[in-house]
Amino acid sequence: MPRPPLCAGVLRPLRRAGMSALTLTLTALLAGPAAHAAEPPTTTAAPATAPDANPGALPEPVRQALARAQLPPGALSVWVQAVDAEKPRLAWGAQQPLNPASLFKLVTTLAALELLGPHYTWSTPVWLAGPVQAGVLDGPLVIKGTGDPRLTPERLWLLLRRVQQLGVREIRGGIVLDRSAFSRPEGAPADFDGEPLKPYNVAADALLLAQRSLVYSFTPDVARGVARVGVEPPLAGLQVQAEVPLSNAPCDDWRAALAATPADPERMRFAGRYPLACGERFWPLAYADPASFDDRLLRALWKGLGGALRGTVREGTAPSTAPSFAVSSPPLAEVVREINKYSNNPMAQQLFLTLGLTQRGSGSPEAARAVLQQWLAQAGAAEGTVVDNGSGLSRQTRISAEALARLLLRGWRGPQMPEWLASLPVAGLDGTALRSRGAPGRAHLKTGSLNDTAAVAGFVHGANGRRWVMVAVVSHAQAAAARPALDALLQWVVQTEPPAPAPAPP
After folding, report:
1. pTM of the model
2. Can you list the domains of the chain with their CATH numbers?
């Protein structure tokens, strides 16, 4: 039996994570942006009135780190509170709604876990819309999307393998894709920051196949003086240069050194060289012609299985009859982990629209916003909060540090806490928090980055064993320089925590 397409170079270092190679590569590498978008600086209000003895005193190590970065204290908004306390330990500028960047994924994922349950799965039905005789399907293969964020190449291969197991070797009616469950996105991939080939700009779709992205691999072959080039998933009609000469240049801007042609949907060529010092590297890219991606991908996968396809891959409507079979996604708890660990924007937006579809009967942004606004109101975090697309890749989204801290406390105290907590990156160890230097291994922190935003939020394990909620958002034109200040804040929370209150007498 043929094997599903995998990028072996990706598989080796990632297999121990327990996930398929391309799935994790697309999740981690196609993640949210760090300082991509040129956004206007956000004005930060003065520190909020302290609700306890002295929570408004910004720790001196944090002040010093801000000063070294030439950032004013007013650019920082902070809320720190023990999970077993009623008041914050530190509240600084915490009532001002700011752009949280990817911290907003915490809102979307917690709401989804509460409203759908960690066991929720997406079902993608498939129809053999015609008789099957002598291995020939005399009609189309129909696939209906319901928003599954994890329609990876491996899972699509298994879907087509299931078609073969039903006796089909040739499809004579083409393939029909029903993506009517979600509203069509407005605008173009480049609208946010002028980067149409960045995978984080891929739009949500009821039938989002392989996130409409490719991962190119570069593996040095020193003996031959070249780097071997691979690409996953395969696309019909895409020609990729098999190798590129090596150079002795430092591994700086290696992608620019390749002088590639990623905007050409037919050919990927390299006029430059690949630095040997880079070792093995991977380059994720959104496909240059999204409209033809599904056609090229399905044709390549079906051909790789030895099948023949007559007719076109086109959009249409699924039959009203019962499907021939359906494929189910991994459970929501696993999807949430990928969204938060690697800040995957397309997956977050898939989940966002799924909330509208399941709770309001409409997979539209308007319905999804209404669901989240209602949930936020019930959670006491709606005031000043502006919901846009659920991922944080937005210039309109707003939420205050105080409101986000309330949601963190809600998540900690709720039944979905284990799944939600496990979805957050571990500071200094994995996900988007891998480079955190604050207190490695002592915090589960979601990160957020845009040109004018640097943010972290999550749970900190103090030196004395107490758990803390921490939210910190820097809103400034030079926000990227604030990472040492955020690390200093994390160290302060871990190392200088006050003792837990004494238990009440019986």
Report:
1. 0.89
2. 60-119+332-495 (3.40.710.10), 122-329 (3.50.80.20)
